[in-house]
Amino acid sequence: MSDAGKRESVNGADDAARTKANRGPGAGPGNRRALIAAAREIFAESGLNAPFSAVAKRAGVGQGSLYRHFPDKVALAMAVFDENFDALEASVASPETTLDALIDDIIDLAAVSTALIDLIWQHQHEERIAHLTTRLAAIVGTVAARERAAGRLGEEVADADVLLAITMLTDLLSRADAAERRPLAERAWAIFRRSFAP
Q: What is the distance between the terminal CA atoms of the chain, rounded to a whole angstrom?
């Protein structure tokens, strides 16, 4: 390749790098969504030992963008769970959603988020984590009230009891091998369900 061709090739690569690095403020929301999606995949595949930089690489964004949105792994885990809770809130808004359906959704989400559950658990007493507990309690409260009114949940079963069952289920999932998570969670929930019946 001639010197001119080499310069053109290098300059073209530099231009591409500058374009990627400087897509402007409008790229922020898209980058954030890409980082959250990448975090789900990376931590499901490799656990918490996965390097933080792997998330940026998978998302196709620079390290600077990663740290602007999420200064540490806990902030990223919180964003994943906020997105999970958005989906759960949308689901329980439907009057047809039962406690069994909610638990089924939680099992699905928890089964692929075990590393992030562990991370949140390690930081559970931090103030920034508190809103996750509040959101989950509201989701459970909505469905539990509906189940009591329909006669499917004993009046003596408090929302806190259901939350405890969910905590125990997710902890169980985080300790199980991937192939065992779904059947194990279903067995555990069947035990809780029998004890919660009116």
A: 80
